[in-house]
Amino acid sequence: MKKVPMEQTLNKLNKVVPILKLGQKRDISSFISSELRYRRLFESAKDGILILDPLTAKIVDANPFIVNLLGYSLEEIIGKQLWEIGVFRNKEESKKAFSQLKMNRYIRFDDMPLLRKNGQKVEVEFVSNVYEVSRIDVIQCNIRDITQRKLTERILRESEQLLSKTQKIAKLGSFKFNFDNEELTWSDEMFNIFGVSKEVFNPTISSFINYIHPNDRDSMAAWVRDTTLGENPGELEFRIVRPDKTIIDIFGSGILLIDQDGKPSNIIGSLQDITERKHSEKALKDSEAHLKEQNVEILTLNEGYQALNEELKSTLQRIQKMNTDLVAARDKAEESDRLKSAFLANISHEIRTPLNAIMGFSDLLIDPDLSKAKIEQYVQIINVNGNQLLTVISDIIDISKIVTGEMTLNTELVSIDGLLKEIFTTYSKQIRKNDLKLSYYSNPEYSDIDTITDLNRVKQVLCNLLNNAIKFTQKGEILFGFNLTGNNIEFFVKDTGIGIAPGDQDSVFERFRQVEETLSRKFGGSGLGLSISKALVEMLGGTISLKSELGKGSTFFFTIPLTFNLNSHDHSNIHLQINQTRQWADKTILIVEDEDSNHMYLDEVLSPTGVSLLHAWNGEKAIEMVKSNPGISLILMDIKMPLVNGFEATQKIKLSKPELPIIALTAYALNQDRTKALQAGFDNYLSKPVLKDALLELLDHYLNS
């Protein structure tokens, strides 16, 4: 850095300070001679020094240290005010401080942030004084860079916090005793070990001794005596009695510090709560004694420090896992926010696109000169986009109901084959891709399958999967149908489209998730269809999954429970059979139900059939009635009841009468509940609310078989 001679500095100062205009004379030569030593100190100082004009606050001179610290050249700052070059964050506050300096002739800031030329922040101590030099007031600012010191202080605080946490985890406290003033200092964990409040309790040698267990005070007194005489304190195990009378086992260790004169100056050490270890050791000894009495040889391990180290290691591993889990949770939350933002941007596009077409072509329809062909074309475009907009709005409403738990099911008897034929007819008319073929797989063996489910929701899931298949398949074939797998109906939709990469397959059912989330997405859609489908399938008691290969296509599967199986070859008469009045005068049904309203409903439904009805209020009574009434034809069994529940009652009844049909009627409606009931021995299962037609059809299947 270019040095500025002292004469030049004074010339600058004389030009800036208008005192000379008052006619006062200056002995410049004398001033220069007296300040040569100051110049050498000024140039070599390890702190920053600025010389300011007290009237204008402009910089008259600056030493190399402050120039390097701020990152400016000397020429860039000479003649300028500090706030002009941007070193202060708050210009008005710095002006206010300058006014205070002129008034008090002194100002100090122990921690002030300054900005370097490159925008980097440095923390400094800032001290400024107004001096009189040769009858001229001069402001000298001394600036010390404390950035590294502040960093060191922060690191020290963090280290102290980490040490405190580690001591708390290990139940390890530290202490220091000063021989000169007999001052005893405790760490925070020491107070926790002794069960006393840091704000109330003052640790002293006498108060410490008072907490020692009476039987251990002699050994502790000997330990203190030896230490006072200069003996190394070493290690000691003893007990303390907390204020709440709890006895705590302690392991203590210490180191004796010697001063320059060879005399003891301090003891530093630690106390550790080893109560749990002692209890474990006692339990182990008791176990060994018991085994020895039975002449059983056991190999014992010396736990000691190894056990403590393993415990600390295990604790640290748990902390690391907690940190990992917290990071994963944070990343998941950030990903969720990102997906929601992408979804909102996409849904805005999906709403505005059809809305633009609807409004645009509606406006064009006002033209009275439009031909009939044009009118029909515009109306068709409006209808198509209206349906598209309705689909988006329906998806948003559905996902809102799912999130708030307001989605409900309306069950009825559904012909599976009839449902798929209806969907095939609808989609065959809609597909306008010449290179795309839609096929429906119908297994003649299952053509008469019916089940109790929500027709509209099953149809919605199938349509969602078909819409996706059509959207992502430019040419080839789409095949859909169903099969029976155990007690479930399994639907499938298979396409020869673009497929899904393995890394994306686990996330396609998540809300707001789409394989493509950028502005360049080739395919439209709200990104809600699959997440809605998954929620609906789970509400119906089933599961949904997929198999896919990138570039070759995808197959989506979902299941719903087969509540009961009607292999009626005369499917056209099914509704007639349901509405006919059954005659079961020669049959007896035992209703096991603890709710009066449910029992009354079943009685009203079954009375017209002439069947004899018996009633038990719980499973225990049901077991007794089966033993005393051998003519019972069938049992309708609730699951959740007092004394003996439906599971236990069914298992006991099946031991003596395995052929007696028992049907579960319960509010537990999930798929796993149905599976659990069948595994427990129930012959079939109906979830509440029980529909009249479904109940009669199921009873007819068992009573007339």
Largest sheet: 5 strands, antiparallel
Determine the strand fraction and express it as a percent band: 15-25%
- The N- to C-terminal Cα distance equals 108 Å
Task: Tell me roughly what share of residues is in helical segments.
Answer: 40-55%
Arrangement of strands in the largest sheet:
2-1-5-4-3
Count the beta strands: 22
**How many distinct domains?**
4
**Apparent shape:** flat
CATH-derived topology of the largest domain: Heat Shock Protein 90
Helix vs. strand class: alpha+beta
Rg computed from alpha carbons, rounded to a whole number of angstroms: 44 Å
Gross CATH architecture of the largest domain: 2-Layer Sandwich
The overall average pLDDT, rounded, is 80
Q: Please, how many helices?
A: 22
